[in-house]
Amino acid sequence: MSALYSTPSGAARESAILLANGAGFSLDSPWMRAVADALVARGFAVLQFNYAYKERSVVRGTPLPPDRAPVLEAVHERALEVLNERSGAKRTILAGKSLGARMSTHLAAKDVPCAALVLFGYPLHPPKQPDKLRREHFAAIVQPALFLQGTRDALCDLELLAESLERYGGRAEVEVVEDADHGFHVLKRTGRTDAEVLESMCDRVVRFDDDAFPD
Question: How far apart are CA 147 and CA 99, in angstroms?
Fold first, then answer.
């Protein structure tokens, strides 16, 4: 498993973040690195990692589909152990993009040692299949969660998300990103850039951390 551990140059926050990739991303993909860098700049220690299938994909130089959930979960949990061993932080937040967000919720439902969840584009259902909801484990999750979701996200109908979170075991917040798609790309007519959207989302993560853990 390849991993990248980044720490802030100044004072560190008391929460460290495990940042898991989306299905098509590796840890050095531009979007994942931009998020990691933005979170580190805000005082979080961040560990990124590659799932096993992505590691094989990088080595072979060809795209590969994700492994089955148990394999993904095992790699994800090992990465969490590495972060907890290295960071010395008071608590750990599981964060992820799409697939990584979904696997983060799977680990939280299994009661692994994590304090909260930050979910960038949770894939509530496959595209154009809103009847296949990925929420069966929500009731088992007690950690506070922040869902960051775009209004143009084809993998997450916001009304269905609101309904699904009624069964969520802990406290869940939804930050709606206007005009953003699943990759948090916004249209030019909005007057915002993708970089501005990313920075705004990371600012929201800071507020979530402050509110969830008012030390």
Answer: 13
User: How many domains does the chain contain in total?
Assistant: 1
Q: In terms of residue numbers, what domain contains 60?
A: 3-212
* Whether 36 contacts 46, CB under 8 Å: yes
Among 146, 147, 153, smallest CA distance to 182 is for: 153
CATH number reported for the structural domain that contains residue 185 in this entry: 3.40.50.1820
Please give the chain's pLDDT, 215 residues, in tens: 789 999 999 889 999 999 999 999 999 999 999 999 999 999 999 999 999 999 999 889 899 999 999 999 999 999 999 999 999 899 999 999 999 999 999 999 999 999 999 999 999 999 999 999 999 999 999 999 999 999 999 999 999 999 999 999 999 999 999 999 999 999 988 899 999 999 999 999 999 999 999 86
Q: How many CB atoms lie within 10 A of CB 131?
A: 7
CA-closest candidate to residue 152, choices 105, 204, 126, 187? 187
